[in-house]
Amino acid sequence: MYNRQVIFALSQLPRRRQIFLLICLISSALAFVRPATVALHNQSPHLQGRDGIHDATTATSTPPRKGAPRMSAYSEPVPQATDPPFRVGHGFDIHRLEAGLPLVIGGVKIEFEKGSAAHSDGDALYHSVTDAILGAIGLPDIGQLFPDTDPKWKGADSAQFMREARRLMTLRGYRIGNVDVTLILQKPKVKDIKPQMKANLVELLGTEESRVNIKARTHEHVDSVGESRSWVVHVVILLEKV
Questions:
Q1: b vs e for 206-219, b when ≥16 Cβ sit within 10 Å of the residue's Cβ?
Q2: Distances, alpha carbon 181 to alpha carbons 132, 166, 214, in Å
Q3: pTM given for the model
Q4: Which residues on neighbouring strands pair with residue 217, listed in sequence order?
Q5: Cα 227 from chain centroid (whole Å)
Q6: CA distance to 7, 21, 46, 66, per residue, from 1 (Å)
């Protein structure tokens, strides 16, 4: 009876007033429903992100390669219909140089009085390339995937990180477009080993020699790099959709 009276009263109102009240009613309903929808979205562990990374509880389609380093907190990337034809990544790393430690640059061990202070083998070049690939495909950085708090990476060959980055890149549906490396250290000189470093990158990335470039320069005796207390690598990488 009450509802009929309300409906009758509303029907006697001018048309504009009826429309106004209808809009108010719809707005109130949406204000009530939206918080519940957001809460449900935030609580669901099975939602897929816009960058094509599935939650670890649902991604089981790609079996791990035996002996390969595995991500513990993140799952496999998958190709997306909205993926752009190209992706760009930037990698950076710096390591202190300390006496009595081995120095490995681009997979080449160099005889020098100092070496990288690091949890792994301290190859900042490999670390930077790895980070550039991970960044390009929207994954966490190398420090999250291979944390220095994990004893299994103690003294690890950084080529392992490169292989895993390449595997993830391939899963996402991309390949190397080109890689540009800038190596900055005061000494030792690396001119003679640049061809070997380049060959190592070509092999690990499964690409062509023409797509990899390595530049080296000093830091003009400025700051810790110029005083041979550290060395730095920058990498810019272009990925192409397969």
A1: ebeeebbebebeeb
A2: 10, 17, 5
A3: 0.68
A4: 184
A5: 31
A6: 10, 21, 47, 73
